[in-house]
Amino acid sequence: MEGFKLIKQGAESKLFQGSYLGVPTLVKDRFKKKYRHPTLDDTLMKERIKAEVRAILKCKTVGIRTPTLYLVDLNRRSIFMEYFPYSVTAKEFIFNANESLIEVLSHCIGKLLGKMHANNIIHGDLTTSNILISNKQKIDIFYESFQNLELILIDFGLSHTDSTIEDKAVDLYVLERAILSTHTTTYNIFTGILNAYKIENKNYKEVFNKLEEVQARGRKRTMVG
Amino acid sequence: MVIAIGFEGSANKLGIGIVKDGEVLSNCRRTYITPPGEGFLPKETAIHHRQNVLKVLREAIDKSGIKVSDIDVVCYTKGPGMGAPLATVAIVARTVAQIWNKPLLGVNHCIGHIEMGRLITGAKNPIVLYVSGGNTQVIAYSKKDTAYSLSNDPSPGYNIEQLAKKGEKYVSLPYCVKGMDVSFSGILSYMEEKIESLLREGYTEADLCYSLQETVFAMLVETTERALAHCESTEVLIVGGVGCNERLQAMMHQMCLERDAKLFATDERFCIDNGVMIAHAGAEMFNSGTKMKWEDCFITQRYRTDDVETTWRED
To answer: Does the beta-carbon distance from B178 to A124 stay under 8 Å?
Structure first.
């Protein structure tokens, strides 16, 4: 792609950054996976582009910040969307920020996810790499205060928008696992997230009960005694 | 210098191996093979292990060319696995440790696979895909077995692989990836439900094996790739019995090529459960000063990989 440069190869797409119609743009190219059967690859690519677009739009309508879509092209296997030049991932943020900022972040993530689930949107791949923290003042300062920062949810390729309690619980469980394997802060990020989740999702009790069930079957605990 | 002997019998393989500082001195194994269409059950598997364990032990010592007095540590599989087979082999390990007057170490089976894979391939800190019947594949495979009564010799997975090579037509099957987890239960029910009608529609058994393999492996490769991207790692190591499937290795290799990662895989000598992996992982633990009290040397059917404290690694 002319004028676009490859900035990252994620798990299932290449990300290119450049300018489209005069605005900073990110192109997410779900390139052909040669290891998969072509039929399967084609089906998955289309399914995921559609799921991503659908979830991004639904998030927008309920007031969750996601990248603005500029162009969706199934033949080119690509989505053109808003690029956030002044942003870091939550993962990076947690590595660099102090405990009190991490606490605020956890609270914000929890509220965001509560709202998302209250609107029956399931992300499907929640990790700290899939949450961006962007500075609204368009400067590269992140670790002083949370005031001008906003959260942007990205990577909706595995999402769906018709959901059950089980789906919500699994969504949270996937996030818990991702946090445990990536972060070792003394502050318990996941507990912070759950506490704030309650504020935005009235049905949190059902979800949390289900989460306990999912946790119990997900990890085979040792049977001692 | 550490010489370690390892006893493995958590499933249908009975293996005893001896290693000397990462060098394999002997690697002996017997597999309990069930009739076509049947899986292995704890009781019969335990009987198989009991009948063979002393012969295999003799063989392992003779092949290694060492005297039992040279052995520094006796290692056995503590879990996870089937209770009765685990116990059968653990009893022998406990007994010889007492007779020879050597320290005894219980080793986590999964850690055994991983450390063995690192030793054989030289991978440093890879993302490890551990595929074995117990965790993943047997669910899909055992159902296929009941449908077609595939032979269990040498292993049902191997026979699926051979049959799949003849498959041509691809059937869409449920594909279920949740973050870095996969779920195979959907594919299993789907197969059960649809097998009859798919066969009537002109798909062959080979086509179904082929499609099943393509779909299941695509899920495994995709989740591995997710883990690679998330951890920013560049090494993949495949271990476990299913890990010697050539199609899985080829798909993984292709994925690695597309993102400049390196693939490490081993062949059936070390992929499939064996005693050497237990000996080697045990030797690493022994070297780093791990000691196990006699009363802690029990077995446990459930033993999570992340319950083991990795004292022997600094990274």
So the answer is: yes
Residues B23 and B80 in one domain: yes
Q: Which of A29, A42, A125, A171 is catalytic?
A: A125
Sort out which chain A residues have CB atoms less than 8 A from B80's CB and list them. Answer: 220
State how far the Cα of B42 lies from the Cα of B48, in Å rounded to an integer. 10
Dig out the tokens for B139 from the structure. 């669910």
Asked if A197 and A125 sit in the same domain, the reply is yes
Kindly state whether residues A61 and A113 are assigned to the same domain.
Answer: no
Q: Could you tell me if residue B159 is inside a domain?
A: yes
Per residue in B166-185, pLDDT (tens digit) is: 778 888 888 877 666 667 76
| pLDDT value at residue B315 | 57
CATH code, domain with B108: 3.30.420.40
**Does B214 touch chain A if contact means CB atoms closer than 8 Å?**
yes
User: Do the chains contact at B254 and A158, CB–CB below 8 Å?
Assistant: no
> Quick check: is A225 in a domain?
no
Which residues span the domain enclosing A164? 87-218
CB contact, 8 Å: B145 with chain A? no
State chain A's mean pLDDT as an integer.
92
In the annotation, is A140 catalytic? no
User: Does residue A198 share a domain with residue A144?
Assistant: yes
B1 by Cβ neighbours in 10 Å (0-12 / 13-18 / 19+) ranks as: exposed
Q: Edge-to-edge strands of the sheet including A14-20?
A: A5-9, A14-20, A23-29, A78-82, A69-73
Q: Which domain holds residue B214?
A: 133-269
Alpha helical stretches, state H, B137-267: 138-148, 156-164, 185-200, 205-231, 246-258
**pLDDT tens, B121-168?**
888 778 888 776 544 322 232 233 333 334 455 566 677 787 788 778
- Domain check: are A177 and A72 in the same one? no
Q: Is A225 on the interface with B (CB under 8 A)?
A: no
Mean pLDDT, residues A207-219: 85
pLDDT in tens, B243-290: 888 888 999 999 999 989 999 887 777 888 899 999 999 999 999 999
Tell me how many domains chain B contains. 2
Residue appearing with tokens 């029956």: A120
pLDDT at residue B192, rounded to an integer: 79
B215, B190 contact by CB (below 8 A): no
- Chain B positions in Cβ-Cβ contact with residue A39 (cut-off 8 Å): 170, 172
Residue in the structure block whose two tokens are 């990795």: B310
Q: In what order do the strands lie in the sheet with A131-135?
A: A87-89, A131-135, A149-153
Q: Is A136 on the interface with B (CB under 8 A)?
A: no
Q: Is residue B24 part of a domain?
A: yes
Peptide bond into B154 cis (omega under 30): yes
Distances (CA, A) of A198 to A118, A164, B37: 10, 17, 50
In a domain, A138, yes or no: yes
What value of ipTM does the predicted structure carry? 0.76
